[in-house]
Specification:
heterodimer, A: alpha/beta, Rossmann fold, 2 domains, five-stranded parallel sheet, about 25% helix, B: alpha/beta, two-stranded antiparallel sheet, binds flavin-adenine dinucleotide, binds adenosine monophosphate
Chain lengths: ~325, ~280
Amino acid sequence: MSSGLSDGVLVYSEYDEGVIHPVAFELLGKSREIADRLKVEVWSVIIGYRVEDDTARELIYYGADRVFVYDHPRLVCFDPILYKGVLVDLVKQVNPSVFLFGATPLGRSLAPRVAAAIGAGLTADCVDIQVDECGDIVQIRPAFTGNILAYIRTSSRPVMSTVRYRVMRMPSRDTGRMGEIIRLIPMVEGDLSLKVLGRISRRSIDLTKADIVVAGGRGFKRRSDLKMLEDLASLIGGVVGVSRPLVDEGWMPREHQVGFSGNTVKPRLYIAFGISGSPQHIAGMRGSEIIVAVNIDPSAPIFRIADYGIVGDLYEVIPKLIEELSRIKRV
Amino acid sequence: MLLNVAVNFLEVEVGAVLDFHVIVLIKHVPDIEKVKFDVETGRIDRSSAPGEINPFDLNAIETAVQLKEKLGGIVTALSMGPPQAESSLRDAIARGVDRAILLSDHRFAGADTLATSYTLASAIRKIGRYDLIVCGEKTVDGDTGQVGPEVAEHLGIPHVAYVCEIRESYGDRLIVVSDMGDKFLVEVRFPALITVTKDVNTPRLPSLRDILKARRSKVEVWDADSLLGFIDMSRIGLLGSRTQVFKIVIPSEERRRGIILKGVDSVNKLIEALRMEGFI
Ligand SMILES: Cc1cc2nc3c(=O)[nH]c(=O)nc-3n(C[C@H](O)[C@H](O)[C@H](O)COP(=O)(O)OP(=O)(O)OC[C@H]3O[C@@H](n4cnc5c(N)ncnc54)[C@H](O)[C@@H]3O)c2cc1C
Ligand SMILES: Nc1ncnc2c1ncn2[C@@H]1O[C@H](COP(=O)(O)O)[C@@H](O)[C@H]1O
């Protein structure tokens, strides 16, 4: 079946329990830019169960011209095979020129399946997307544990990428924007090789969404000392992050880990206490707007990417910070 | 005579079905801390760094070996890479892998994730029967995490990504915890592919004896021709790739302010700075 539609820039909107992951709105903003250059429409697709029109309409407010909705009880939890089937079917029907996903765990699991199914190239974890003079899409992504930035072109169609959260500007929400919500029937029969038995735990925090991250590393000598990090964090409205050794020690749950094998964060403020600044750590926080480093060793690599640094003992600096900030708060 | 053959055949078949077979996909990568990146020319000097098994793939090997220990059967390690990658496959043997296959051919070179996954999937087809494929979460050089799910798609089997725990393992299926931020319990029937995170286990160190034994064992090297009948040569290597890297930039240390605060009132100076930036 052909829809008569073609060439739009399509954004996958990750949806879970009534909520759209905000990376979708950022991607719609970027897609608007790309689409206006290419003179095409912006589309979004949303898969789930009990997807309300009001939810889908949000995507229009953020820039979509059309929203394709697949709603079915079997789509309530992410199933890579069913979701892939739905998206491959949609791509065949509407023939998008570009197809973007958020580089969330779900996006990074789903996009490659779709890409392989349609024989398309896929660029992972982009930090920027540009349209060059010829109207070609250029994707920019870190590789080699963040040591390089690669500029990539795609020769297949649609151009597919997963894009990091918080690298694209959040567009403004315009409730005056008009667009169309199109409900389509998903194909969900067959395959029973995979069964999601249930959600067994919810993440307690989401570091990737934090505006302020107060992070500690091996400069901390005891687990109990992390209490002062927590105090400081709550004082300035931040979330606690840690380097990997503290997670490996069992001092902090993995949700708090920053870095290559943990979370990639992009807060407005990142404060690193007793973190040396290994490539693997930096890979997860170099995008922070303001970086503050406190380290006893003046040659610690973290200072090379810091906006403000204090060469000093965290055991002196943190209590003093807490004291001063509490004093300011009181007055 | 005929009957005899048939019976033998049947025995082999039954035996094969009971024999659990895991394939683990590993990549030979440069030690990332030792690679030299030339900011001026944008060159990556891989030769400056010794190669090793991608750190995340050690968890994949450990997963496969533990399953074998529980369910019996064999583990095959499969890697696509340059001839030097043989050392990583030997390392894999020392870590408990039974059979090691290296896909090496200049025609495989320059592959993006689509061509890489297609090549690996073709080799898996040639290997034949398997129950489970285990991959690492991502590689330290490519860092896409895409190869696993793409292999699964080429083979038409389900996959579960970000597996941080194997809850139950049976001869025909696994029950695993998938860490998607929230954690989900997922049951997957064989044949299937999983990608594992570093939380799934702690890879054990190979013993000296195993290392020595691995040195003498065989790594099979397959070139593109040995996959004839399983592979379309236009879908491999640079030719089969759909993404092209046309420029590499090595970010010089960014335009950071680099203000070092000194003296007894450095904390106050920091607070002042945070106030100026609007955080307080
Ligand atoms: C495949 C792979 C993935 C990895 N992923 C990650 C990841 O996601 N995240 C991550 O963080 N790491 C990761 N690592 C580990 C990484 O290589 C480093 O080992 C780690 O980041 C070091 O953590 P650290 O800076 O806390 O400790 P260290 O490097 O030991 O640094 C401690 C610092 O504290 C300072 N210090 C000591 N005492 C004090 C004091 N009293 N006051 C102030 N400063 C003090 C020291 O000068 C030193 O600079 C990974 C490694 C590999 C191989
Ligand atoms: N060349 C390769 N040979 C074998 N396995 C690979 C290769 N490249 C990637 N893999 C597997 O796919 C996973 C994800 O790799 P990547 O998509 O490069 O991040 C790795 O952890 C390996 O298990």
